[in-house]
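Quick one, T. Sequence first:
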Amino acid sequence: MAAAAMPWLNSSDLLRRFVQPAAVPLPQQPLPQQPLPFNPNEPQWPSMKTSLPGPASTQLMRELTDIQGEHMVQFFVDYEKSQGNYLVDVDGNVLLDLFSQIASASLGYNHPSFIEALTRPSNQVAPPDLKGVFTMGCGTCSNEQAFKVAFMAYRAPGCPSLSILSFSNAFHGRTMGATATTHSKWSCKLDYPSVDWPIADFPRLKYPLDVYAAENRQEENRCLEQVECRIHEYAKKGTDVAGVIIEPIQAEGGDNHASPYFFQQLQKICKENGAYFIVDEVQTGGGATGNMWHHQSWNLPESPDVVTFSKKMQTGGFYFKDELRPTEGYRIFNTWMGDPSKVVLLEEMLAVIRRDRLMENVVDVGRHLMDGLSHLQDLYPGQLDSARGTGFFCAVNARDTKHRDTLVKTLKNRGINVGASGPASVRLRPALIFQRHHADIFLDTFDSVLHDN
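Structure tokens:
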């Protein structure tokens, strides 16, 4: 039942009790001039039999309530029937998925190469100049352990009073150390004790970025000055800042962006103050933005000290510079040290990315998707604003939270699965195999939903 943390859930045992295998109907006519999909087994169009949740999902929710609680579940997915960019729920509804398990399903569902890869050996990929790696089970534990290597490398053994600086609206996980650096969701922090660690403002930029370049630079400088103030403030209190952790794009906090200049200057501040620069690429890593690692687009003078990963990378973990390597065994350790079977999938994912030139696809289709979002916000200025994104890491703001939630729910019931973040953002996280014709299906449906609202 671990999948219950996601907005949908698959349980093969429960599924067999309530749903009989059935073919998913496809449209009578294929799309005109449709290119061959990267996954030849995927449907051609969304198809909705019921509203969400359907009767089978509702029954499964009743069953789940007896053992766990169903509050996070919106519907149950049949992952065996899901293919490519389309997920199929237990009621036979077919949804074009622009959320891809919160940016985790790199090649969509049931990619033929993934199926084949489970019988072959595996390998890993690393950011340039970061040769050390620990694998973990998830992004949260990756960040938690990254804090530990920073603390160990910063000072000799003992129990010193050290801290990790983080940013407003950040999300770095749900374990005790990670929650001290998470500031975007009250449910991750309320009722839990927390350490006194410094927090600085993350830039609140205006969009489009090129129109507000001067104002945005001023905002970024204000936040950078605050970082330096916090480091000095905590040093005077006897709590040195051993590390600074930041997301390349704040995802859960509302798809907040910053410029390469901001990250370049932040790394410089870390160097000048002896703090380790930790980049949380749990959501942005693995090709979501058009680079394997989004920090590669910043033109940093050197690599970050630590890069954490999970989601699209199929397993959790973190890369680190040699100076952060623990000198004793079992300092960074857990029972399984990640999931070896996921490394098999990671190797195959990288091979498919190269073979099918998926990074080029992300850049091209990402531009097409952003052009469409920008056009829709121009058409519906009272409903949408602040379209932003890079590659397949895209978002647009609705006029308020209630309106955003209505748009997301309506899109789902018309066969389009998207996500939400921050106070009013609709966020898109399609798989790397998402193509222009998929984007057009989404944009046409989104247009009709906006027209009706």
